[in-house]
């Protein structure tokens, strides 16, 4: 592989975006930040003038040898992944794509990660730096393009998962990783108690596992790494072969499970490792265990307080993925403790004094 830099000249509309933000700040006009708009279901609805980043697209710099890519926020996720794949590389955090129009900016703004997250890291772990449009309409760079450059790095990480409430992501630099030499997926028949015990046992060993899920008496495991390591682990674990497309359907919520019945809402329960099944009145068929059991997708008509109390008792939290207008919780995210809410308010007031960036997206008060 040669030390080359790939560039695409699709579009750089940062100046026009800065002008719109500047005008909105002066007139105190709320802005609804839009890319592919495929993640509008995640969080509270935003009322405001559209700030559309879809045309702010293209790869700015890509150095395959250094494993670094810088890309504009409106770039389609599928386009970026295709360029990386051409160089046998990938976004290791496996960002979900909820539609063909999904953008990399939306992936970072929501901070969501796919099945590989417990083994490779979260989205924010791979963000090296960003160019942000501030409340005054200034385009500023934070962080860098190498992990050791820590100047401003925390602010770049802070934008990951902030849902655009603190500023506008214009460009993002990522650490990328090589694609694995070998992959194989397995299906093993067992109940949830045995599956959790099995995963705890396997987690203490240096095995090439990069995804593990359970649903309806079947444990699903993905192996990735060197050819000999994957082959040896496959022979050791046994089980049936599993189509690799299973993991993409799980990542992008295309699996049949992710269609709640009437009267149900889809929830994500985030729990500590090795947490046993929660004592909730939910049929086993309506629970999908991901991330080795730490992330659990639930379809239920139970109320938000019941779910959140059970998660809180286990050291976790619950997020509703069904919009309130479609029967989901009024507050999709777990309410913040008073001290944490104070810090969030102070940060919002510092970076967005007039509250123009996606107001109310995370919480009604800010």
TrEMBL record:
Mitochondrion recorded as keyword: no
Key words, A-Z: FAD, Flavoprotein, Oxidoreductase
EC supergroup of this enzyme: oxidoreductase
InterPro entries: FAD-bd_PCMH (IPR016166), FAD-bd_PCMH-like_sf (IPR036318), FAD-bd_PCMH_sub2 (IPR016169), FAD-linked_Oxase-like_C (IPR016164), Oxid_FAD_bind_N (IPR006094)
Alphabetized GO MF terms: glycolate dehydrogenase activity
Protein name as catalogued: Glycolate oxidase subunit GlcE
Enzyme Commission identifier(s): 1.1.99.14
Domain of life: Bacteria
Domain FAD-binding PCMH-type: 1-179
Keyword Oxidoreductase: yes
């Amino acid at each position: 592989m040669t030390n080359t830099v790939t560039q695409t000249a699709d579009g750089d509309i940062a100046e026009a975006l800065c002008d719109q933000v500047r005008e909105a700040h002066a007139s105190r006009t709320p802005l609804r930040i839009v890319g592919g708009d495929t993640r509008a279901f995640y969080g509270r609805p935003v009322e405001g003038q559209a700030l559309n980043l879809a045309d702010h697209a293209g790869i700015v710099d890509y150095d395959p040898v250094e494993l670094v890519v810088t890309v504009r926020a409106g770039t389609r996720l599928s386009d970026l992944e295709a360029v990386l794949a051409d160089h046998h590389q990938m976004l290791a955090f496996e960002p979900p794509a909820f539609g063909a129009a999904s953008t990399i900016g939306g992936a970072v703004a929501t901070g969501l990660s796919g099945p590989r997250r417990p083994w490779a890291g979260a989205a924010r772990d791979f963000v090296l730096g960003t160019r942000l449009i501030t409340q005054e309409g200034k385009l500023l760079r934070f962080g860098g393009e190498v992990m050791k450059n820590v100047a401003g790095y925390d602010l770049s990480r802070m934008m990951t998962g902030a849902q655009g409430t603190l500023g506008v992501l214009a460009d993002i630099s990522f650490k990328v990783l090589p694609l694995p030499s070998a992959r194989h997926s397995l299906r093993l028949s067992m109940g949830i108690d045995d599956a959790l015990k099995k995963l705890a046992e396997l987690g203490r060993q240096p095995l090439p596992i990069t995804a593990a899920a359970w649903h309806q008496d079947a444990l699903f495991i993905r192996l990735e790494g060197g050819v000999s390591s994957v082959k040896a682990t496959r022979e050791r674990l046994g089980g049936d072969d599993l189509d690799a497309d299973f993991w993409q359907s799980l990542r992008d919520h295309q699996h049949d499970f992710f269609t709640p019945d009437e009267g149900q809402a889809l929830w994500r329960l985030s729990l500590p490792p090795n947490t046993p099944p929660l004592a909730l009145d939910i049929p086993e068929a309506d629970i999908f265990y991901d991330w080795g059991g730490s992330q659990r997708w639930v379809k239920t008509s139970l109320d938000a307080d019941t779910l959140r109390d059970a998660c809180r008792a286990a050291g976790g939290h619950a997020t509703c993925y069904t919009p309130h207008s479609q029967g989901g919780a009024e507050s999709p995210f777990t309410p913040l403790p008073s001290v944490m809410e104070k810090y969030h308010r102070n940060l919002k007031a510092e970076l967005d004094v007039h509250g123009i960036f996606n107001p109310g997206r995370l919480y009604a008060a800010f």
